[in-house]
Amino acid sequence: MKRIIIMVLKNILLVPYMWFKLNYYASHVDKYTEEERYHMLRFITRRANWGGRVTIQAYGQENIPKESGFMFYPNHQGLYDVLAIVDACETPFSVVAKKEVGNVPFLKQVFSCMKAYLMDREDIRQSLEVIVNVTKEVKSGRNYLIFAEGTRSRQGNKVQTFKGGSFKAATKARCPIVPVALIDSFKPFDTNTITPVTVQVHFLKPLMYEEYKEMKTTEIAELVKNRIENTIQEYTD
Fold this sequence. Notes:
The chain is an alpha/beta fold.
């Protein structure tokens, strides 16, 4: 990934210190508050964006619930997606990701700092345990992000099918569901280029429990997907 090399080179004086700090936080997560860990991650992300010539344009930040205990549901374009949302969102959140991502350097440490859950899609029992744990944590006031597509689209700004099962934690927690439309988020890490890139992060109006309580998870998934698709179409035409 050429862009990561540029990110490192342009922050070369800061990299050793921040890499040590990131690893230390990742290994001692309970020593720091969620706010402290998230603040550190945002600083690193923004420095990396500056070095890698990545500009984040955030829209709809007023749609992020003021009270914690909500869930983000973005489209999934690439390895950079979570970092784009971290840059755009001041409110701490954690992530549910597939276990394979836990082996990617840097993302591994980032997810450790976020106390993220890594889901084994081949292990139904483990996946159900993750849903139960996330439900409990959202009820207690933590915020989470889940990629309802399950995997990167690898088709640019085209959105794949949203899986209804991804919304089980939200429906069980009865929490606000915040659709997030990502545009060009695949370009920083999933393309072999170092040209300047602008990534758009659109926080859409949250879907409250009273609005979706009578809906099936497949219906919620389709509604969220459609809202994201409409936003992408609006801003890419």
